[in-house]
Amino acid sequence: MSEENDLIKQRRDKLQLWRDESQAYPNTFRPENLAADIEAQFGELDKETLEAAALAEENVIRFIEEKTVRKVIVVPGKLVNVVAN
Questions:
Q1: Residue 34 burial (CB count, 10 A)
Q2: Average pLDDT, integer, range 41-62
Q3: Whose CB among 18, 65, 74, 85 lies 3.0–4.6 Å from 47's, allowing a Cys bridge?
Q4: Whole-angstrom Cα distance, residue 9 to residue 42?
């Protein structure tokens, strides 16, 4: 039991040190895009425009740059899925 208490104390001390350095949790998630913003930007677009917008995105380009796009599935207002290998 004493070892467990020592471990808890070490973890609390480490967390307090992080808090003192203003970063309590090192992997704090900060969203860049909110669903409402994405809906406002892309909500009214047709399938062809959504497909073109998705394929022009920087992250999509990076992941598919040396692959062949086999299929693009577009469900307006829901998702765009790019199948590549």
A1: 9
A2: 87
A3: 74
A4: 49
pTM listed for this prediction: 0.55
Is residue 66 assigned to a domain? yes
For 36-56, b/e burial (b = at least 16 CB within 10 A) is eeeeeeeeeeeeeebbeebee
59 Cα distance to chain centroid = 11
Within 8 A by CB and 6+ apart from 13, the residues are none
What distance in Å separates the CA atoms of residue 4 and residue 1, rounded to the nearest whole number? 5
The residue segments making up the domain with residue 65 are 46-85
